[in-house]
Amino acid sequence: MNRQQLQNFLRTTDPEALELLWLTADGMRRCEVGDAIHLRGLCEISSICSRRCLYCGLRADRQIKRDRMSMSEILRAAEKAVELGYGTIVLQAGEDPALSREWVAQVIELIKDSTDLAITLSLGEQSNETLREWRDAGADRYLLRFETSNPELYRRIHPDSKKGRNRLDQLWAMHEMGYQVGSGFMIGVPGQTENDLVNDLLALPRLPLKMIGIGPYLPHPETPLGQHPELYLAPPEDQVVATPLLVWKVIALARLQVPKANIPATTALAVLDEQEGRKLALQRGANVVMPNITPAAQRSLYDIYPSKGRAEAAEQTSDAMTTFDDQLKRDIASIGRTVGTGRGDALWSWKEN
Ligand code: SF4
User: Fold this and answer.
1) Measured CA distances, 113 to 52, 135, 137, 306 (Å)
2) How many alpha carbons fall within 13 Å on the CB side of residue 196?
């Protein structure tokens, strides 16, 4: 899809044009990745982070209680994922210096020794040596959002970016190492314009992506962006505002941009619209859900954005997690879809057009 077409869809409120977008994205999803919705167990292994991203509740200079899961706690979470019938565990954390190369490699090996789960890592920016060791240990996939394709906006909201590596380089390096690579961006972060959003969508097919994660920016009141958005906002006529409708449009457009990708209906969208957010995303291009399997004690500390706890409240205990899982599976059946079995890998090879 070209720039003008993307822009037209992002702007339209015409019911017929929207219906056409939903039907096309849903048809493309059915044709390219099928009716199965893959469930990935999300395990938030550490809420400790050394970075200070301006929008994130886990930024290093917030004086909050944090925790890191032990190896045995992570293994129990993996067992829970198997028990619930999930094919993947996603190990996610802030950039916690104590998650050493060796420690994470050992966790990966232990999970691989005891389960058939696919392992997705979402552990931020890492060196090639570390990424290679984790891949050798058995990691299958890696998620690293580029967050915005506007380099100036990226630097503004990531004050530590000079210390880190270029995320796009890391995506390519991981692709070369054989990871299934996932990335994506935020919608509505202060300073993001419609032009930026179009560029974000245009960037997707140019990257070696098999998974695309897109979520609304949700302001956290104890972060610089949440406290003083006026210092960062684009002019009102240009600033993107993350409404549920806009997020659904971007998910649908992402499906049309990268037809074979695995695209989750994110928790952030479920926070933005508790009633319909997730369900309509699944009917407008998405094909993955990531239920949270983090133990309650650690999950309550993973305060990346407000109301996340509420969206996941139903999953707070092991029993409630099972109840949530049952409800999710009923919701999936209610829209005529099936729960995916097996690992739910992206079964296609990315190659440059
Ligand atoms: S977005 Fe990630 S790297 Fe940035 S502060 Fe939050 S957890 Fe840390």
Assistant:
1) 36, 15, 11, 36
2) 23
User: What residues line ligand 1, using a CB cutoff of 6 Å?
Assistant: 49, 51, 53, 56, 58-59, 94-95, 124
38: helix, strand or coil = strand
Let me know: does 46 contact 99? Beta carbons within 8 Å: yes
- Enumerate domains of the chain plus CATH numbers: 3-339 (3.20.20.70)
- Residue whose Cα lies nearest atom 5 of ligand 1: it is 59
CA–CA dist 200, 287 (Å, integer): 20
Specify the amino acid at residue 37: I
Give me the residue label for tokens 């380099």: 151
The full DSSP string for 273-300 is -TTTHHHHHHTTT--EE--B-S-HHHHT
**Assessment of whether the complete model's pTM goes beyond 0.85:** yes
Give the pLDDT score at 219. 95
Q: For helices 15-33 and 3-11, what crossing angle results, to 10°?
A: 120
Q: In this model, does residue 90 exceed pLDDT 70? A: yes
Q: Going by CA atoms, what residue is nearest to atom 4 of ligand 1?
A: 53
Tell me the pLDDT of the chain averaged across its residues: 94
